[in-house]
Write a structure and sequence with these properties.
The chain has 309 residues and is mostly helical. Helices cover 76% and strands 1% of the residues. The chain has one domain.
Length: 309
C-alpha cells in the first residue's frame, strides 16, 4: 500500500498547477504564526514548546486520523488519507517549474532573463553572475529542493510508515523544514519578529530531522550516478563540515555527475569535476529521475515484503 500511495500522490502532484495561493500552505502559516505568538517567550524551553506545537501537533493529528480510518473504515480509507497527505507534502513542481524556465532561457542564449528568473526564485542578487555561475546556482538549488520536497519526505514517510505511523513522517519532515525557514525569515521582520531562541531551536531541530534523509539522498545519488566519485566527495567533505546536511547532498551530487559545485554561505568548494555548463542541467534531471525510479522500486519491494510477511 505504501508504494501505491506514493505513486498516486506523485502522479497527482505532477498534474496539479503551480499555485502560490495554496490553502494548505496558508493554513500552515497561520498555525505556525499562532504557535510562535502564543509560546515564544524568548527562552529555549519556550522555543521547544512552540516547535512542538507547530510540528508535532499536526504530525500526531495526521497519525491519529490514519489510525482511526484504518480501524473504523479499513485500509482503503487509510490509504486514501495517506495519498492526500503525500499529495500535500510532496512538491516536485515547487522547483521543476523554475528549473525549466531558467534552462530554457539559457538554451536560448538569454542570460539576462535567466538572471532575473534566478533572482526571483531564490531572492538573491544575480545581476553580475556569469553563465557558469547561473548554472551552478540552478543545479544547487534544484538538487536541494528535490531533496527537501521529494526524497527527504519519502525517507521519513518510509521510516515511520514501516512501524505503523502512516504518513506522519512526511508531515514531520516538511513542517520541520518549513518552520526553520519561516522563522528564520520572520526573525528579520518588524511586524512579527521571533526570538533568537525560537529560531535556534527550529534550526537545531531541522538539523537533527534532516540528518538521516540527507545521507539517504546522498547515497541514492551515488547508487544511480558515479558511485566511487560520489562517495569520495562525500567522504572528503564530511570532516570539514560536520553537521552541514545540505553540503552532504551537494558533495554527493558533485561526484555523482562529475561537476564542480561551489556550495553557498561561503563554504569550501565541493568536487573536482567539470565547470557546470547548460548541458549538465539535463544530466542532473536524469540523476533526479533515476533516483525517483529507484525509490519507487524500493518502496514496491518493501510493500511486497510487508504483504507477504
Amino acid at each position: 500500500m505504501s508504494f501505491i500511495s506514493v505513486l498516486v500522490a506523485l502522479l497527482l502532484e505532477q498534474a496539479r498547477p503551480l499555485s502560490r495561493g495554496n490553502p494548505v500552505h496558508a493554513s500552515l502559516r497561520a498555525w505556525v504564526r499562532w504557535s510562535s505568538r502564543n509560546f515564544d517567550a524568548g527562552k529555549s524551553f519556550h522555543g521547544w514548546l512552540a516547535w512542538g506545537f507547530s510540528v508535532m501537533g499536526p504530525s500526531l493529528f495526521v497519525m491519529g486520523v490514519y489510525w482511526t480510518l484504518d480501524v473504523c473504515l479499513g485500509w482503503l480509507a487509510a490509504g486514501l488519507w495517506t495519498v492526500a497527505v503525500l499529495y500535500a507534502t510532496l512538491g516536485f513542481r515547487q522547483f521543476s517549474f523554475h528549473f525549466t524556465q531558467i534552462r530554457d532561457a539559457l538554451a536560448d542564449g538569454d542570460e539576462g532573463r535567466a538572471r532575473v528568473l534566478l533572482a526571483n526564485w531564490q531572492q538573491i542578487d544575480a545581476s553580475e553572475l556569469p553563465r557558469s555561475e547561473i548554472v551552478r546556482h540552478v543545479i544547487e538549488h534544484s538538487v536541494l529542493s528535490a531533496h527537501r520536497h521529494v526524497f527527504g519526505v519519502l525517507s521519513w514517510y518510509s521510516l515511520l510508515a514501516a512501524v505503523g505511523f502512516g504518513p506522519a513522517g512526511a508531515v514531520l519532515y516538511r513542517l520541520s523544514e518549513f518552520v526553520a525557514r519561516y522563522w528564520r525569515h520572520t526573525s528579520l521582520s518588524h511586524h512579527q519578529p521571533v526570538s533568537e531562541a525560537l529560531k535556534q531551536t527550529a534550526d537545531d531541530a531541522w538539523a537533527v530531522v534532516d540528518w538521516i534523509p540527507s545521507r539517504m539522498t546522498a547515497l541514492s545519488f551515488a547508487v544511480v550516478g558515479s558511485f566511487e566519485e560520489a562517495i569520495d566527495c562525500w567522504r572528503s567533505h564530511e570532516p570539514r563540515f560536520a553537521g552541514d546536511n545540505d553540503s552532504v547532498v551537494l558533495a554527493a551530487t558533485s561526484g555523482a555527475v562529475n561537476i564542480h559545485l561551489l556550495t553557498t554561505d561561503n563554504r569550501t568548494e565541493q568536487g573536482t569535476g567539470q565547470v557546470p555548463e547548460v548541458a549538465h542541467l539535463a544530466v542532473v534531471v536524469g540523476l533526479v529521475w533515476r533516483t525517483v525510479v529507484m525509490w519507487m522500486l524500493l518502496l514496491a519491494l518493501l510493500t511486497l515484503a510487508r504483504l507477504l510477511g
